Amino acid sequence: MLKLAPYDVVIWHRVESSPADLHERILAHAGRAPDEGIELQGVRDMHWGFQTPEAAIAFAESMFELAVSDDFLVLTVLASQDEQFERRVYKDARSSLQRPA
User: Fold this and answer.
1) Total-model pTM
2) If you write DSSP's letter for every residue of 12-66 in order, what string do you get?
3) Domain residue limits, the chain
4) Per-residue confidence at 97, pLDDT binned at 50, 70, 90?
5) Does 83 have pLDDT greater than 90?
6) How many CB atoms are located within 10 Å of the residue 37 CB?
């Protein structure tokens, strides 16, 4: 059975991005592959799990330099097992996603 980490950092970015190596830069900066990820409709959705809120927040905040890209769409910290933790949304540009007509 899959057990979720208590805290999750979520990053979305466009697959066709500028700079072209945004995905590789995110992975290099993270220092490890995401625990979960999917590519759908031109967007990568990646999740990294952490045991403490401090570790998750530090990881997310370390991504600020990369998050300035217009193709870096979502940067947030969520808690799956801590009702006291308030979700932290550092960036959410999903409204900029084009919806099919």
Assistant:
1) 0.87
2) EEESS-SSTTHHHHHHHHHTS--SEEEEETTEEEEEEEESSHHHHHHHHHTTHHH
3) 11-39+70-93
4) low
5) no
6) 12
Q: How far apart are CA 91 and CA 23, in angstroms?
A: 17
Closest CA to 43 of 70, 18, 80, 12: 12
Backbone torsions φ then ψ of 73, nearest 5 degrees: -95, -40
Q: Which of 47, 37, 36, 35 is nearest to 15 (CA)?
A: 37
Measured CA distances, 24 to 7, 10, 34 (Å): 23, 16, 12
What is the spatial distance between Cα 71 and Cα 93, in angstroms, rounded to a whole number? Answer: 9
Give the SS3 label for residue 78.
Answer: strand
11-44 confidence digits (pLDDT tens): 999 999 888 899 999 999 999 999 999 999 999 9
Give the CA distances from residue 54 to residues 69, 72, 78, 100, in Å, rounded to whole numbers and listed in that order.
25, 22, 12, 39
Residue 3 has pLDDT above 80, yes or no: no
